[in-house]
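=== RUN LOG ===
request id: a7f3
mode: sequence -> structure
chains: 1
length: 330
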Amino acid sequence: MEDVIIIGAGPCGLSAAIECQLQGLSVKVIEKYNIVHSIYLYPTHMQFFSTSEMLEIGDIPFVTPGDKPFRHEALAYYRRVASHYNLQVNCYEEALSIDRQPGGTFIVRTRTSSGEELEYSARHVVLSSGYFDHPNLLGIPGEDMEKVTHYFREAHPYTGMKVAIIGGSNSAVDAAMELVRVDAQVTIVYRGEGISSHIKPWVKPLFESMIDKGRIQMLTSSRVISILDDRVVTQSLTDGTTDELENDFVLALTGFRPDRKLLASAGVQMSDDMDKPVFNPETMESNIPGLYIAGVVASGRNANEVFIESGRGHGKLIASHIANTAASES
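=== RESULT ===
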C-alpha cells in the first residue's frame, strides 16, 4: 500500500512526487514512456521560452550557460533531480484504470511494455499525464499519409524538400527557421490573419525578415483542405478560392490535447463542455476524495493554459492537503 501513486513523470508529476516525499509519504510514479517524455519529444534543438529558474522543481537549481535553456539541458536537469531524490519511477508502464475502493483507497491497474498487467494499492492518486500523445487532428483527406507528421524533431531529413507547415505557433515558426537552414522550400499555411503575437520576441524579427526576403512563404487566412501524394490543396478563408502547392512533406503542427479518458473512467466530473476536469484549485483534489489533478491535464480546451512554470506548483498544494488531512484524522 503506497501513500501516493502518481501517474505521469513529467516535470509536474516529478514535482508532485518530490513534495509528497518531503512530507514523509511513500510515493510510486507510473510513466507510460520515459521521464519527462513530452520534453523528449520537443524538437532536438529547441530553446525554452522560460528562464531556467522558472523550470526548477524540488529546490534544485537549474544552472545553464544562457538565460533560456535548451531541450537537452532540461532533459539532463530533470534526470538529475529524479536521481537526487531517488524517486521510484516505473518507466514504460501504462496506467489502465483507477478504481476507488469502498474503504476509500485506490486500485491502479497498469500494463508493462512486455504486456504484464499489474495492480497497485494506494491511499491517494495524482493524475499528471501530459498531452503529447494526442495531436489535434485536422480531419482532412490525406492526413494519415506517411508524408504527414504532427511532430517535428530536426530539419536534416527534409533537406532540399518542399515542406508545408500547418499552424502559426512557436513550434511552426521554429520548424520553419530550422528547415530554411537545410535549404528546404518552406510554406506556412495559417488560419490567422497575420503572424501570431505569441511568437518568441527574440525569434519574431528573424522570422519576419525571412518572410520579407522570400526564404519562407506564408499563406495567412488559409487552411489545408486536402493532402495528396505530390501536393497539398489550400483554401482561402477570405474568399473560399483554392490553390495547389507542390509538396513532399507536411508538418501538421496544430498542437496537442490532454487525454481525459482515465479521468472520466475514474468518475472525475468534467466541465459542461466535457473539456476540463472539476477540481478544487486550492488543493487540486477532484470530486473523488483522494484523487488529485496536476499539470496540463488540469487545463481546458487550450493545452497551453497550464505550463511547467505554473503546473510545478500543483505538487505543493497536493502534498500539503494530503498531510493536513492525515493530521486532522489522527
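=== NOTES ===
The CA atoms of residues 172 and 253 lie 6 Å apart.
Helices lie at 11-22, 37-40, 71-84, 170-181, 204-212, 261-265, 308-311, 314-329.
=== END ===
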